[in-house]
Write a structure and sequence with these properties.
about 20% strand, Rossmann fold, 4-stranded antiparallel beta sheet, alpha/beta
């Protein structure tokens, strides 16, 4: 539980020493929830919501920042535990949604793309691929993602889809967010980093911890770096996987998946209580 960088250690120490002014933010999939073949079946790791709630009663704001719709997270097993946290929010679809309240983190242009047409074109593209025909398409409302984890050769399927999916997105003036065996087509101009920066600014944050596992979390890591440069201590935590080594390389502290995140939450609560 010791960061490998001095800046990360300073950030973690600041969280423990002044928890009431610390901002804690987490991705959902791969961080609070194990990655599964069917994304619709993703559930929080047993005990992790309880551990997060216990820590959240000791700290400042707690946020889940995810590409999922907020309704997905609120429908997960054990979610009610988190509603007891005094300052807790979910920022869904990269900040286009917020729970509670329903609005975005800040005014955003979510784009006027015809997602019905995007979904139809993507389905045709997948059906026409001999390598990626078994890929699964996830409809997020204001985004659509294609997952290759269920295919016979997930990496080959992802590679086969990469160029065509990017071309499809470009035709509709949309952004492609790559991830662990997934390509997501969504509006541009929104990122997890944008959301983290807004929360930190709104809450008068004295320190920040961000935990992620995938390429989309690197924008939030970059904001932690920016905040540190401005004098706000912070720590970047990676929930490690072999599918996104870039995240571990950019992190201050690498833990073993959601189990490691749960252990970190329990560790921080013990350290805060022992002050």
């Amino acid at each position: 539980m010791n960061p490998v960088t001095p800046a990360g250690q300073a950030g973690l120490t600041a969280v423990v020493n002044d928890p009431r002014h610390a901002l804690l933010a987490f991705d959902f999939d791969g961080v609070l929830s194990p990655i599964v073949d069917d994304p619709d079946q993703a559930q929080p790791l047993p005990g992790i919501f309880d551990a997060l709630a216990a820590l959240g009663h000791e700290t400042g704001p707690v946020a889940i920042i995810t590409g999922r719709p907020t309704a997905f997270v609120t429908s997960r097993t054990g979610f009610a535990t988190l509603t007891s946290v005094p300052d807790f929010a979910i920022y869904g679809q990269y900040g286009l949604e917020r729970w509670p309240g329903g609005g975005p983190a800040a005014p955003r242009d979510s784009g006027r793309a015809d997602f019905a047409a995007v979904r139809a074109e993507l389905a045709d593209l997948v059906r026409g691929s001999s390598v990626a025909a078994e890929s699964w398409i996830e409809d997020k409302g204001t985004a659509v993602a294609v997952h290759t984890r269920r295919t016979a050769d997930p990496a080959a399927a992802l590679a086969a889809l990469d160029g065509p999916v990017r071309a499809l997105a470009a035709r509709h003036q949309l952004h492609v967010e790559p991830g662990k065996l997934v390509l997501e087509i969504r509006p541009g101009g929104v990122s997890k980093g944008d959301v983290l920066r807004e929360i930190a600014g709104d809450k008068g944050t004295a320190s920040v911890l961000y935990a992620g596992d995938d390429l989309g979390d690197l924008t939030a890591f970059a904001v932690v770096d920016d905040l540190r440069a401005a004098g706000v201590p912070g720590v970047k935590v990676c929930s490690a996987s072999v599918e996104a080594p870039q995240v571990a390389q950019a992190a201050d502290l690498v833990v073993a998946g959601p189990v490691g995140i749960r252990d970190l939450l329990l560790h921080l609560t013990r350290q805060i209580d022992a002050r």
